[in-house]
Amino acid sequence: MKGNLTSAWLELLGGLLVVLGVLLAWLAFTLANQTIDPNLEKNLMRVRVDLPGFLEGAARQLSVAAAWMAGVGAVLFFGAGYLVWVFRVLLGLAALFALGVWAWLALGWA
User: Fold this and answer.
1) CA–CA separation, 3 vs 12, rounded Å?
2) What pTM was computed for the model?
3) pLDDT by residue for the chain (110 residues), tens digit each?
């Protein structure tokens, strides 16, 4: 695929998404391995806050978001040229459809 300015921007966006996904995964890993002060946990249980469960749930949600972000970034990074081609084909088909509807209405076939 021949590169152009649009595919270069998509590759840059994909690379940025991959890096942000990795950083988000690192944050999820850090939250999952967080040690909790027993006194803090005891005080939070008095007001019925499950801090270990909250951190585990937050880490799980962050890891899912990180995986999606890195996956979409990889698709953009490695398939930018093909995505530009697909978008151009879809836009061409949409233009042909609009032209066909206009001709159908203008010629009185409706």
Assistant:
1) 13
2) 0.66
3) 556 777 888 888 888 889 898 889 888 888 888 887 888 777 777 777 788 888 888 999 999 999 999 999 998 888 888 888 888 999 999 999 999 999 999 988 76
Which residues in 42-80 are b (16+ Cβ under 10 Å) and which e?
eebeeeeeeeeeebeeebeebbebbeebbeebebbbebb
Say which residues have a Cβ less than 8 Å from residue 85's Cβ, sequence separation at least 6.
1
Residues 6+ apart with CB under 8 A from 76: 10, 11, 13, 14, 17, 83
Of the candidates 108, 105, 21, 100, the residue with the CA atom closest to the CA atom of residue 65: 21
